[in-house]
# Entry
Amino acid sequence: MTYDLDLVKVAYQSFTGVMYDGRECLMADAEMVMVSVGGRVANVNNSTAKTFFTHRRAHHTAPCNALVVVDVCVVVTSRGEMPPHAFCMINKNLNKGLIGSDVFLCYKKSMNRPPLIAYKPEVLFRYPMVDRRSLVFPTSVPLFCLPMGATLELWPNNAAAPKPVFSTFVLTVADATDKVYGSAVTFYERYPHEQLSPWQQEQLGWRAGVSHISHSTHVIKCICLLSRWPFSDTFERWLLYILEMSWSEEPLHVPIERYITHLLEEVPFTEPRILLQLSATHAHERVIVTRRDEQPLARSGAGFRQLLLNLGPDNCLLLLALAITEQKILIHSLRPDTLTAVSEAVSS
# Structure
């Protein structure tokens, strides 16, 4: 059984695509297709109850690499038709008459990728610089941090910068019971166009002396923490705090390296409960690290709330049945911040 997390999530989509006229309200940023290409009323229902397609367009300042609808199709389920692979069906019958077939609209999402060059990701710097006895640095970490590659991208100048994305991954370094939990934050940095090679300019469509007026180049990077403990919530706040500190224009009272050595060398993670203060001036900037040994479920990288939100209760029960009957399950997603949480929940 194959599950695509980007397409199964129907009930929680902010964009439905189908509206029953007179029974629903149109979203503030959506438009309704009222007239067809031939100038006729674009009612897709064959009865007096009117049904129209709706759509939303991204703002011209929308960031690149966002999930957008790239294709649509129609299936007739009463004839046994099913949505094509990677398509999601909107559970709203287009035919509301007493007779006729059951017709549904399906759509496919993908990332609106800008012109880019993908490279094999590699480690730029690591701490500690030598392996510990308890943990040998896994060579596959760069691939898990940047599964789509280290990309050099060409953006329009009016495109907003995407927010940093936090994701997790789980590595098995020795056997199935020996796990290393990775917490990663990916972000983009501006890349000086003066450093583009002639080959890079050609691949990106960059025209020297002209393109910088309307476009800019950016490179994706990632900072990651490896741990024997799945403290993903705590590590997310810590990584984002470090990242925002590095972007701050205010002078730092404590070097960023000191925060890193404090967390890795001085915080005793074997303790059941630890209060980690991030800022000396803001009391609310702190996190609590706890093993929660008293909980009925062992602590892991699982996100059961993410599992229910993305797959829904019916699909969760189906997954349980598939797992009990020892079926093969493949889960894939374009959203790395969701994939591990759902996969670990299914595994748990």
Notes: Confidence is low (pLDDT under 50) at residues 7-14.
